[in-house]
Protein 1
Amino acid sequence: MQLTRLIQRSKASNPAPRLLTWFSGLMAFAVLIPIVYLVLRALEADPTQLVDIVFRSRNVFLLANTVLLSVAVLLTTTLIGLPLAWVLARTNLRFKNVWMILGALPLSIPGYVGAFSLLAANGPGGTLEAVFGLSLPRPSGFWGALAVLTLYTYPYLFLNLHTALNNLDPRLEEAARSLGRSRWQTFTSVILPQLRAAWLSAALLIVLHILGDFAVVSLMRFETFSYAIYSQYTSSLDRIYAAWLSLGLLIVTIIILILEARLVRRSLVPRNARNLARGGTEFRLGWLEFPVVLGLFSLAAVSVLLPIFTAFFWLQREASNTFVNPWNDLFQASLATIGVAAPAAIICAIIAIPLSYLGVRYPTQLNRILERASYLGYATPPLALALALVFFTLRVVPDLYQTLGLLIAAYVLHFLAEGLGPVRAALLQTPVRLEEAARSLGMRPVQVILKIILPLISRGVLASAALVFLSAVKELPLTTILAPPGIETLAKNVFGYTSEAMFAQAAPHALALIVVSSIFIGLVLRRNQRS
């Protein structure tokens, strides 16, 4: 114990290179600038206007809708994710690897693509009516938004709970059973409390996704904070009110982050990790296997097979139209998407190296704060961040407004937190002794990073770039508001065509996004299985 403290003190006494500290401080400043300016822009209203904006009854309506949708999605995703995780972790169900992939694949489908599939499949002339003769009403409003967000966010809960179930200490369950408790009593009193931290972590991701999403609620015509911000900005009715809406959304996000952090700390279950067996008692399904398989197949059919089938159906219909060439439009949108996502991914991976190095090798309180400041950009709802950048550039650097550089910078600020994870993990696995040996041989810190560290963390850097690239390919709010005129990405085209009920034109772009995202999700699952 004393040796560990001495090592930590020696590390703390070894000052970090000034260049790294200044660079980290600059990145933290870059993340805070748009948020601070958003506050200043909102406070530009005169006192009378300010009172009218803050105490407007519409704000209560939007807040109620946002909270209602978030709570409902958390409930429905739990009703899907928890049983699915338990079935795949604790039963003798066959072909578990196949069901694991099908259960995780909805993560590869953006919410607006899921909305496209439900809107294009139902209603007059929809896929289901044309192919199967089923005429179902098109989803809309609260129930439509709930259905789409549930189907394409439940994997967050499913994967977290599945991992937690596999890592539980089985001795606690065995002790409860030996004391005479039934399976259900053991599940509710022993297993569920240990899953609380995993549930809260996944619930945070889902709520942040809902707060930042405007595409699904816009397509389903359900008014939330994000929908109102987008409507106010695009209609140019009241930019100050849009700033206040963005600020309100940011405040709600901060409250949720603080609440989640406190609940997670209370939910951590200490246990002895030694001699820990994997998982718990396996439950034999018997005659229940058929209804379980039927339920799993129905879920996969609605969340995965329906979007793919619908995209192919409308793509075939579009191809039969001799007046329109969908492939030319798709090619141009793919080039635009890569042209924005690739630079953002490369820049994020490069920036993540010094930030992660500072936090891992020099873990002082200041350095931790500088590193964690990068997560503010990810926690900030994309619409709020985009609107803040619009206000800032129009007032300070108007030449930067609606340029490709501004859009890439927004991607970097928002997705930098995703890029930090793989690089940080790679650095934690890199022995410090190699760096110390290199310095003892006369190498400068920059030479150590370039010749020793970079080759060792190259896989982490590539994973960082790949993760940011995938997120940037699917990004819609930042692209919609900040993209220069003439830049039409795959995400923008899917949303634009779907909002105008032009499902045939949206189909090739939706299919391209599904294919790219599915390949990435497949690689991630394969890597996790090997690990």
Note: The chain has two domains: 16-37+322-499, 56-269+289-320.
Protein 2
Amino acid sequence: MAAPNPTPRLNPRGGDRKGPGSTRPSLSLWYALGFILLLGLVQMYYLAPAGRPLPYSEFKTLLRNGSVAEVTVGEQTIRGTLKDAAVASAQGLAKQFTTNRIDDPKLVEELEQQQIKYSGEMVNRWLPELLGWLLPLVFFVAIWGFFFRRMSGAEGGVMSFARSRAKVFADDEVKVRFADVAGVDEAREELKEIVEFLKNPKKYTNLGGRIPKGVLLVGPPGTGKTLLARAVAGEAHVPFFSLSGSEFVEMFVGVGAARIRDLFQQAEAKAPCIVFIDELDALGKARVQSPVGSHEEREQTLNQLLAEMDGFDSRKGVIIMGATNRPEVLDPALLRPGRFDRQVLVDKPDVKGREDILRIHVKGVKVSADVDIRKVAARTAGFAGADLANLVNEAALLAARVDKTEVGPQEFESAIERLVAGLERKRVMSDKDRETIAYHETGHAVVASALEGQYPVHKISIVGRGFGVLGYTLHLPTEERYLSSRTQLLGELAVLLGGRTAEELTFGEITTGAQNDLLRATDIARAMVTEYGMSDELGLIHYEGNKRPKFLDIGMPQERGLYSEETAVKIDAEVMRIISEAHARARQILTDRREQVDIIARRLLSVEVMEGDELRRILGLPERDAAAPAAPAVPAPTPVS
């Protein structure tokens, strides 16, 4: 049974939704064409002169032969009737005929000589003249109306560019609930207050409270910000407006501001509701003064958004939600109280959150009983919700590739390696290159195993993967780590330089395989000196003036901080000292274990992939307890190019 007064379903442009078989523009066109055809038939059968058309010369011949009984002379035509129908039929003529009138001054004399009855025709001009201009007018009006509806219709023609492009979902169309969102418990609890306000606003307004106008979801990509916003709408059972920040800005001046106004008008009409603007940084980037000018259209759109949020009455039950992974570039006016005054962090999940997310995604996958979801979650630290969904899908595809009926532990292990290191590549490689790669990866693994505070090695491989990754070493942390000490960073530098050092000790020369290692080591050493205050020589000063992205792992423009040339020389010297000491430390470790390095490298050349437990047995270290829960973050593999 349908509910009373159901909420109308809306299309993405905010108008009434048409069914899939809607043909309104086509039916209107067919009606116009049918009307034109009807007028043509009326003119053909009722206004056209009756009788068989004859040439004027043949009419004159019949006139001289006395075969014509009577004639009606009009301005342009002459209609007549023959005397003998039988004779006319024998000659293949109709009894009534029509001919075009030409300038013939003797026609009346000949009619009187033959004693033929003739008369003039009363001209009825208004109907033919009316049809003469009405038919083209109706035709052009029908064509114009058809194309105008196509251009300005709700499906998004060229005349609708000033309308909001928001996709509107009715309250019964949003099927996502909080139970479908895992790994973001803190954010979910924060947003439950928004749901409660939309369900029972008097609970807050009776006490004089005011719900926040805007809620900004910030966090890394793939953590479920959009899903969380849809869950709020689904729990509150209210309409949901969804659009991206880039959909407001166009090449036409003023279009973005017009779309903002139209969006808020639609939201007021559907209140209570939720308006979700994804990728808010595309619209709300901070306004700056530039000598080359600024993007006036984008700033005008941002100003309109600020004005609308200022004049918006929160008591109407319209919640503005935004999402971004670049909060550091947003305009401060957006983040002040009264606009997006509540910011909710949607961060990457911990090991418990990853386990909950995996359990949601494996519901629709046939997983074997020997798959331990907890262990899979432990090996995927640093994965966001989207990464975990992709992991489950990749594991299912790998199982289907070998015609398995269930997804087993091996498929999950292979899927993790594929997502972390890339697709496995089978390529022919010389023995010299294979040997170099084997010693390079052995150097990383041995140094990591010898140093205290470093994550244990999970796997070593000399099988090429991805782009330029000819070998890699995976580490499996035993705990979640949010801070790194100076000792841990110095140990990580030694591990990064262990591959190049192993090449030096074994072959007496170096290759290009350590390019990525050197890049990462230099970044860490420079950050220790300029950002973390871990240099005794330069002290507790932050020398870098630029801000790093909080949630995006992208490089920033290389701009030197506000320090002197003398300080820059000291920074470079200190970075060089830290890296040189780490290199010497790695060299000492590998020299002391030279025999074990050779054994591990030869074993790696034989099997290509070595597990961490076998590595520790060769090094004489205790094996890691496989039953102990791990909370791994798999670092980027070491590429050898």
Note: The longest helix spans residues 565-592.
Protein 3
Amino acid sequence: MTNPQAQHDDEIGNLPNWDLSDLYSGPDCPALSDDLARAERDATGFDATYRGRLANLDGDGLGAAIAAYEAIEDILGRITSYAQLTYAGNLSDPGIARFHQTMSERVNDISSHLVFFRLELNGIDDGILADQMQGAAARYRPWIDDVRAFRPHQLSEDIERLLHDKRVAARAAWTRLFEEVMADMRFELDGGSLTSEEILNRLSDPNESLRRRAAAAFGEELARHGRVFSLITNTLAKDKEIEDKWRNFERPQSSRNLSNQVEDEVVDALNTAVRSTFPRISHRYYRLKAGWFGKEALDHWDRNAPLPGAEDRVIPWREARDTVLAAYGDFSGELADIGRRFFDNAWIDAPVREGKAPGAFAHPTVPSAHPYLLLNYQGRVRDVMTLAHELGHGVHQILAADCGPLMADTPLTLAETASVFGEMLTFRRVLTAEDDLQRRRIMLASKVEDMINTVIRQIAFYNFELRVHEARRKAELTAEDICDIWIDIQGESLGPAVRFDESYRWYWTYIPHFVHSPFYVYAYAFGDCLVNSLYAVYEQASEGFAERYLDMLRAGGTRRHRELLAPFGLDASDPAFWDGGLGVVSGLIDELEAMG
């Protein structure tokens, strides 16, 4: 008898595993020990050399100080990246977990010598700093502006050092607990024991009975850990509330917005614009999809189900790679060439395996090295789009590397631009090559679902976080309280054409962004609307667009969203900007309705 899993694996083909030796050859290698010793020596020397002296430096002296600080950050970033990637490869291994925690603590101890630097930089008088910007320090002006944006919210050095030193035993510890609980969970289905990635994949299986059983098994197992997840959520929300009060952030999301270099008002406008489209986008689409399934309403396990008549084939890894690179190449040969480096080198970890971190991500590491991609590839169309998405991040990170460790990181408001644009390029290439009307309809519907998941669902997540954090400021929340908020938000965003059962009440527990990066999720909606608007500019006037686009990615964190979008005639502070991006999604649904 044929083993279905073995057959599935054969169809996918050989999947790549990453090789982290470009960072370090192993946890016990001499190079890692040497870097730890060098970072500690350089950090203590930096403290002794510059503490209390920044305001008295000339521009070249301040520039040299920042360059020395940046070099230490590069070493610490390399160590941290290696530990994080090793840990992501197997969250369940106690030895790896111990190594990751040990490196986190060592890096935290070393970087405590650097805490003074940003605080003292913020203490320099504006007039003195203006004079210092005439020298070598001018290169770092974007980074200095970002640091000084937090001046109203910084605390005394003693308190800042206390918060810094306690991090590994506070938020980081709760995050680790979440990761290890999720990694160790197994979901029993039809006599098998599945990881979270494997059972979530069953929720998009063509077999409705399998989807229903998978959804129940997933929710029931999450519910069994409900007390742990609610404790993590309550603790992290309270921890954030305490720090926000000390730093004078009135709203739970304000610190995230400031770090994203975007005004509260812009995010509010995005949130309002998306919520206003719930009826004409998600409610309307799921009503349409329910009709295709011959139902009055979809059960939640049908939400991501393939449409009737959809081709249910496994997409081999080689085909996925070729599809994505061809789409990138149609747009820009340079973009494709950079993307190809991830496949030609061991920079991607693609297989699903026990203990591996769920989901997908692109880790930038440090500019002196290169990014790595983590996937859990299972041969679905969505997996191909995930590859296109994460490769976009990776290419962006390489293009921005010349900005250096302090300025290569892109604000979250633009961090999803290259990734979502990569998805759009891939989708448009595949759609253009398809001339069968039924298959085009299925492809369009799949894209609409991806957009709903990226825009509608992520804004729903954002509002779930808002309500949880606001409610937590009044009292601790029971697990049932959090479940009630979740179901209320899901009903509002998905509409009456989607039904929920008891098991779905617990689906909030597995969303990692709520734990790792509070209020990150709106960046996906920001990015999707931005890419829709960008792509419209590309279609209308493609001449020179690729060059301007790559220049935008090369800017990394050196320019704000207004400066970066100006060459394309776009302005995220204009409400019409969001309406235009959301109109693309609504227009695709119009097209689907016209197809019948």
Note: The two ends are 42 Å apart (CA to CA).
Protein 4
Amino acid sequence: MRHITEGTFCLLAAAVILAVCSRSSFLYAFNNWDDANSYFTVGKGIMNGLMPYRDLFDQKGPLLYFLYGIAYLISHTTFRGVYVIEVLCGAADLLAVFRIISLYTEGAAAPFCKAIPYLLTPVTGMLMFSSRSFYWGGSAEEMLLPSLLWGLYLLMRYFKKLYPAPLPDRTVFAAGILAGCVFLIKFNSLGFYFGFMVMVLIADLTEAQQSEENGSNGGCRSRSKLRFTVAGIKRFLRHCGFFLSGMFLSALPWILFFAIRGALYDLFHVYIYLNAFVYSEKLPFAERLYRMLRIIYAHMRSNWQYSCPAALGLVLLFVRAAAKKGKWTELAAPVMTGGFLLTGIFIGGVELLYYPFPAAAFACLGAAGIAALPADASGRGSADLGVEKTEKKAGRMDSRIAGLAAAFGAAGIGIGVLCALLLSMNVHFMKYEKDDLWMYHFRDRIAESGIKAPTLLNVNCFDAGLYTVADILPTCRFFQTQTIKLDDVALTQQAFIDEGRTDFVLSRDHEPQNIGRHYRKIAEEVMEQSENTYVYYLYEKAD
């Protein structure tokens, strides 16, 4: 571990911590979360020639389904492929966290400060992945988190190291690409990048004022002031162009893919229109605002693993700015992006356990603030900055602190695993084997029927996992029951049952209407899930 790179270290830490925290890992018999199974089914459909939205109805973004499609190619009937995708995303998360923490240890006079990110990065990852909103693993929020963390890194790096110098165009373009990835997974988290562009506006206007004052004062630096100028507005419009170009570049392959397959209307109608105008609740503005604030407060209390570090980090950034060891914009950047992020997520009035997980990105602020304490206390030297740049280019670490970094890294991963075992809501599910789960019993009943390429309809609940374990590709567009208020869902599913169009029907808690016309019940099992008890029924076509 003495010569391990930052990326490899983060990959190792993510793999170990997520093995404990995610039900997709090899430590669990199956990820029985219905949302994750529906993503898996749509991803499987993509890899078998079906189109999301048109052939298989679900409401998340196409990039999420593509990632699950890759997971399906890795393993057709388990979540081992999803675990691989989670580890890669988790490694990207932790590498961004590592870089953000390192911003506050660069140039420290005490060499050991450079090893601190190796200790704090895995611990921060544990706090994010063991939180209540991480849920069971594999959420859309988890898959988009890297795009938020790297956007936060770009913003924090600029305001800490370059501001009030001009904001590089390539930084805004990269942010646009990241925002496009968020949009293609779940667009209600795009509020983060609205806040990002507000900070770009502030940077452009204050930079314009700074340049004017520098020119009039013989090049002497003076205090930055926010003022609307023609130069600043032009600079911001140019940055908007770069940002939108990045977003368009991310979306272009999917626009072409859906256009070629004749499903572009379905993409916009289901993913954008229905999510924006049908799924969210209709509430008066005052009630919507009150409900949003109440929901955010409740979620931040229940997800203390990252809300407390985030709050600590903001306090420490405030103290650094007040002591003139940091800039006020370093504090404004996470406040602005975090505020707009939470507003975008909860303004619709919908409250689910996993919704606030994108806010876990700000857990790194606590680690960064803690890392800055010894670095500030030891003092900083310009010579060390040059050494760090040379080390980064060479991809190695000074041998004086490599051993300390290895020890810190091992301790960080060890602490992360131990705390994850204590904090993660999923650990209790490790006791279950495949033989304990109803979906494997139902899979065996389907196999015993001898039907080649059996068909299945899942009603009265989201995708419960039988499509996955039995490796069945849906033949009905509404392959699961939806919560969205569309009459087509119930009508289409009932037509399939009335006409006996699938070999098997899976139902939860209720017997489907007219099921006895073409089907007979062949299995029934009870399962406790999320502190609830459900009864699952399997019907086989009798005629």
Note: The radius of gyration is 26 Å.
